[in-house]
Amino acid sequence: MPPQQAPRRSPGPGKSKAREYGLKGLGLVLVAVVSGMLYWLIQQGGNSTSSSQGTDGGTKPQTKYTFVKHEQVPEPLHDSNCVNASYNDVKKFFEKNPCTQLSRELYVVAVDGRKVYTSVAVVRMPDAAGAQQLMKLTETDDTGNVNDLVRENRVKVPGLKSLSKGGGFANKLNGNDVTIVESDFEGGSKKEDEAKLDDISKDALIKGDEIKN
């Protein structure tokens, strides 16, 4: 007769329960980890639409258009003589109300297969009252403005002598600072281009925070 085998012993109720609880605990941990990862991915996705990583590790707001610094102006130009860098009524204003700082930059934007040149200037006045006066003056027709770098012949652009005739415009007041933006297509623009150029100029206002000291 073959030797009898000892009957198998089933695990005791204590061991079975401990294993069950262990598996449930592991499952809860995995759910928590997956939920955390999903939350992080959602947060990152939301942030990417409104900001981008800066070179200093911080974030900076994104623009609708891609503004590239003109190759002839790799760094913003800073000055403290706004009289020599302006014309018409704005020039007269600075003769009586000198600015404390002027920062200017020129950007190039590709739109619908055409080049747009965008001038960004930030004027810092001694006080907020002077900045408000300048803001009002620059948004009034036929009063002049701060020179863009094309008008000042610092940059040569085919078909353009300045960005102020028939192009886009936007300005912004922030304390003692007035940001002034002018844009125009290479070769000049038409009446139907005005809305697009105004939109580009408005979008470029944020660049003023990057170029001022």
Write up what this structure looks like:
- This protein has 213 residues and is of the alpha+beta class.
- The protein has 2 domains: 13-51; 65-211, no CATH class.
- The protein is 33% helix and 23% strand.
- It has helices spanning 13-48, 88-96, 128-138, 194-204, 208-211; strands at 51-53, 59-61, 68-69, 77-79, 101-111, 114-124, 168-174, 177-185.
- The strands form 2 sheets. Strands 3, 4, 5, 6, 7 and 8 form a 6-stranded antiparallel sheet that branches. Strands 1-2 form a two-stranded antiparallel ribbon.
- Strand 5 and strand 6 (114-124) form a beta hairpin.
- The chain starts with 12 loop residues before the first helix and ends with a helix.
- The relative contact order is 0.13.
- The model is unreliable at 1-11 and 38-58 (pLDDT under 50).
Keywords:
213 residues, alpha+beta, 2 domains, six-stranded antiparallel beta sheet, two-stranded antiparallel ribbon, 5 helices, 8 strands, 33% helix, 23% strand, disordered N terminus, transmembrane helix
Mean pLDDT figure: 80
Major sheet details? 6 strands, antiparallel
Shape: globular
**Total number of helical segments?**
5
- Round the Cα radius of gyration to an integer and report it: 31 Å
Bin the helical content.
25-40%
> Which structural category do the helix and sheet elements fall into?
alpha+beta
Indicate how many domains the architecture comprises: 2
Q: Estimate the strand proportion.
A: 15-25%
Q: What's the total number of strands?
A: 8
Please write the string of helix (H) and strand (E) elements.
HEEEEHEEHEEHH
Distance between the termini: 101 Å
Weakly predicted, low-confidence segments:
1-11, 38-58
Transmembrane segments: 21-42
Keywords: Membrane, Transmembrane, Transmembrane helix
